[in-house]
Amino acid sequence: MVINCRVNAGFVSKDSWVQDLGEGGGRIIGEVCHFIDLIQYFTGSLPIRVFAETISGEKGKYLNEDNLVINVKMKDGSVASITYVANGDKSFPRERIEIFGGGKVCVIDDFKLMTFICSGKKKGMKKFGIDRGYYNEFEVFFSAVKDDKPIPVDFKEYVFTTLATFGIMESIRTGVPVNIDNKISIL
Question: Which chain positions lie within coiled-coil regions (predicted)?
Fold first, then answer.
């Protein structure tokens, strides 16, 4: 499977709490991690390697770390890219996810419109309001706590999302790919 995630995230000031590494963690920690989760969900696999590069040079009000391309290799052999930018235009759509595999394509635009393409034909389009899953996430979590049900996401997935996210930061610092699967041996 090949997955492309493009995020036109918009500008956030250097002075914002979001950018404070101690409070908001920065946009990679606070936002990009969700796209690692999404890639894991679509592939059903864990990330084993990440490589990231930011824009460079003086960009005025834009932080280099808010404008980057990330490549992710998954354990099942799938690959994904995340293009995350803060220096785009607000009027351009925020998110586009493209999933290629098995002779089929799925495109998700702004989590409002999903299109499936197979054998040269659009198999269906589904329009829905923006749903990034927040409500369902809380509902499942509180149900698990209240009714003593298992949480549907394996703890290992949380760990690997975290390792991949920190690996992205390390890759930006070092300029080399970071292997995730050898970072932890207890799982």
Answer: none
- Residue 76, SS3? coil
In a domain, 148, yes or no: no
Domain that holds residue 34: 2-126+154-176
The three-class DSSP label of residue 7 is: strand
Taking only the tens place, the pLDDT of each residue in 36-68 is: 999 999 999 999 999 999 999 877 788 888 999
- Please give the C-alpha separations between residue 85 and each of 52, 128, 177, in angstroms, as whole numbers: 13, 25, 20
Distance CA 143, CA 63 (A): 39
User: What pTM value is reported for the model?
Assistant: 0.86
CATH code at 36?
A: 3.30.360.10
- 9 part of a folded domain: yes
